[in-house]
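User: I'm curious what two different proteins look like when written out as structure tokens. Can you demonstrate?

Assistant: Sure. I'll show them one after the other, since each token string lines up with its own sequence. Here's the first protein:
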Amino acid sequence: MTQRDKAIYLDIDARTLRNWRKNKPNLYKIIMLGFAFEEAVKKSKENYEALEKLKREVVDL
């Protein structure tokens, strides 16, 4: 997700996000950690689903 995508998701202007990075680094860090967490959850779900598919294939052998 680009910075612009993140700004759209947050319903703010991309300049606001850049300003937060410069002037409110703790707020910016919290927001970026939130996005990283969401991405990690998404990847974990995808990995789990892939493992479940492999498990079903092995059981069907």
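Here's a second, unrelated protein for contrast:
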Amino acid sequence: MSFDSIITFLPTRDLAQTAQFYEEVLKLELALDQTRCRIYRVAKGGFLGFCLKDEVTPQDGVMLTLVTEAVDHWQALLAEHDVPIEKGPVFNPDFQIYQMFLRDPNGYLIEIQRFEDPRWRTPS
């Protein structure tokens, strides 16, 4: 037996700024607004939640990875919103991925990547 879905919750000091980024820049669907928490659909059965907290210290090593075939599209869209890119799209031969990096308003590292290994490619 397996699970039906996954939600990863992360804390934020500024839920409005976080909502603006994930809704207006990344265009994620707001699945549930719980006033102090907002849950976004990232993929079928995959959700990301942010909850308002007074004190937040992003943990080293926390990285959100969004998998898409359209890495270059996302770079262009983020540039339109003046989102600073930490590392532009590049092929990573060690992991056989095409990836880019940026930070969200909370300082969390976001990787947008595409698998180049055909065994992991998203079916069209």
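A detail about the second structure: The radius of gyration is 15 Å.
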